[in-house]
Amino acid sequence: MHWYLKKSNDFAITPLPQTVQKLLRNVNKISADLFQLSKKVLNDPKVIELTDALKHIFETRQLPVEVFMFGSRVTGLALTKSDIDIYLNFGDECTEPQSIKRRSKQIQDCLRTDHENWDIELTLDRSRTPIIKVKHRSTGLQCDISFTKGLSVENSKLIRSFNTAYPPCQKLTLFLKKWLSLAGLSGPDGMTNYALVWLVIFYLQIKFKIPSIADLIKSHNQSKIISGWETGVSDTIFINVPQQPIHELLLGFFEYYGGFDYMRLVVCPLLGETCQKKAFAEVSILPDSMALYVAQLQGDKTEYFRIDSPMCVQDPYDLSHNLTKAVSILTLKRFKHYCNESSSVLHSIIAKS
User: Which CATH architecture has domain 42-149?
Assistant: First the structure.
């Protein structure tokens, strides 16, 4: 292979896979099937059995801990094989390396008292969100247990609120999760499903002017600070926009992100509009709704929003977190290319119908 091509990586941007083209030719049926399956998974009795079993272990050991489920099983975006995400709330912030290690051992010791039901498969104490990966034998379900901060629980409530208030948001996300997977755009240097959710919601904010997270916080007017970030949004939100066919929403999504200026702009669901990357380098020009981000830069544990990444999507609550900081330049090129290719496929299908 020529050295220049190898260095530029342009050779790796392949045509839209046939499996993705087939997916796009069956948008209505596949999105309807995924939507029905997600509703079925949402009421899975095995999940209740798993959470009850966890609660029982901690009650038996007399540990004062609350068990919360979050992630796709709460938001309505889970499918049959989706993992269970659990947050254990011990009533304190567990952030120091030594306290994380102690808390992790404490949880593992509890699980080992019922070793016939629980397999501890992996512990990740040094990741951004430390987790314990376990398998519940009687249900066969995989479970990721986190215990450091409860922001993920609030994030899941927020996503569920959008999906409940505007079901096409849920349908669009479920379809795009499938699209992302078949296009090979997930993985270590790819996009997470969580980042994809916020790309969808942000696109709907731009297209229909559905409320920004800052507006939802302002209208609810009940501050709720978790891990230093404002999460005061009502569990019930109202979205009054016209229902559009799924293929039209999908086409709009592909056209928007196929033409997005990733070099200069940040996707900001908090604002409901883009923000210039340079504003994060000169924080004095950031809007007032970013005040908590600016304040945490003055604290002991400063965490800057990563604007040096090819793709920038800001978490709606943890304003220092770039959800797509792991996305490589090659993956971003492929994402844009596949968005434009998918747009062309949909246009040709619509023209024939």
Answer: 2-Layer Sandwich (3.30)
First to last CA, the chain: 43
Taking a C-beta distance cutoff of 8 angstroms, is the pair 320, 328 a contact?
A: no
| Amino acid 1: pLDDT | 38
- Token couple for 155: 């994030």
* Closest by CA position to 339, among listed 221, 187, 207, 176: 176
Domain boundaries defined on the chain: 12-35+152-351, 42-149
pTM of the model: 0.93
Which residues are CB-neighbours of 37 under 8 A, at least 6 positions away? 79, 80
- Angle, vertex CA 322, rays to CA 316 and CA 328, nearest 5: 140
Contacts for 196 with CB less than 8 Å, ≥ 6 apart: 173, 176, 177, 180
Q: Give the tens place of pLDDT for each residue, 226-269.
A: 989 999 999 999 999 988 899 999 999 999 999 999 999 999 99
Q: What is the pLDDT of residues 194-217, one digit of tens each?
A: 999 999 999 999 999 999 999 999
- CATH number for the segment(s) 12-35+152-351: 1.10.1410.10
